[in-house]
Amino acid sequence: MTRLRAAPPALLAVALLLLAGCAPVPSAAPPIGGASAEVPRPADAVELTAPPSAAEAAPESCDPTASLRPAAQAGGPTLDRIRARGRLVAGVDQNTYLMGFRNPSSGELEGFDVDMAREVARAVLGDPAAIRFRVLTSDERIPALERGEVDVVVRTMTVTCERWRRVDFSTVYHQAGQRVLVPANSTATGLESLGGRKVCATKGSSSLAFVARARPRPVAVSVPNWTDCLVMLQQGQVDAISTDDTILAGFAAQDPYTKVVGPRLTAEPYGMAFPKGSEDFVRFTNALLERLRADGTWAAVHGRWLGPPPAPPAAVYRD
């Protein structure tokens, strides 16, 4: 097994926080020094012996990227409720650098997903600051929507047919793809070379289901947050992380002693998720996304966080 040099837990935690709020560490930076100290395995880490559920493994039978045709209507039951409250409640991440993370200098949530959620608040309420963020893990996203605790989830969420049965989605606002992150000195070339090795992903993610079904079969390790995966990789507790390339790019920017390997294994189209039956809000958001694609806002947000923008994902409608 190839391993990175372990840093003391306190130093490691500080380094991750600092790196999350600034530019990537140069590749020539010296290794973190100090004694090798084992970071405790996350209490919720689980090694899977089978795919998470039969439902996740089922083949898709619809076009999950197809959403409702846009309509910029002034109101509707969901929109009226949000406007009466005076703020949008959005589920986001705080652990994924570049997509949704907490800036340690300001304490503010930042990233591509966070900015996209603010654009929704701007469109609904006329103010991008009229928003309350609720931090969610991957596994908490759908339950939070089903319980009505959030109006929308903007959190690296892949649209799938299985998920459509429980929530509604916007059109695709970002196209990612699953790849693999390993220590820089690893000889692994992709998921196919990690049979029998420990590969980390978060509970409730489509990435975890894919790893658990891969052949030759890796040992899929489930954790609550992506940062748990990064710490476990740095401590040699897992051999690789496999998830969307947007998430892995943030890890590689934080830790120059890692590398992304192998081709894209899957297509991971991200959609904004809504409680089931929020038709007025879905159509309103799809009209907003059409405008953001056309007026350059989407490209500007992408450029701010993820680099030179490609063409934005084309919208697909089911009605």
Automatic annotation (TrEMBL):
Annotated Ionotropic glutamate receptor C-terminal domain residues: 87-308
InterPro entries given in the database record: Bact_solute-bind_prot3 (IPR051455), Iontro_rcpt_C (IPR001320), Solute-binding_3/MltF_N (IPR001638)
Keywords (A to Z) from UniProt: Signal, Transport
SUPFAM superfamilies (UniProt xref): Periplasmic binding protein-like II (SSF53850)
A Pfam cross-reference name: SBP_bac_3
UniProt cross-references to PANTHER family, sorted A to Z: ABC TRANSPORTER GLUTAMINE-BINDING PROTEIN GLNH (PTHR30085:SF6), AMINO ACID ABC TRANSPORTER PERMEASE (PTHR30085)
Native organism: Saccharothrix longispora
Protein name: Polar amino acid transport system substrate-binding protein
UniProt domain Solute-binding protein family 3/N-terminal: residue ranges: 87-309
Signal peptide limits: 1-28
UniProt biased composition (Low complexity): 50-61
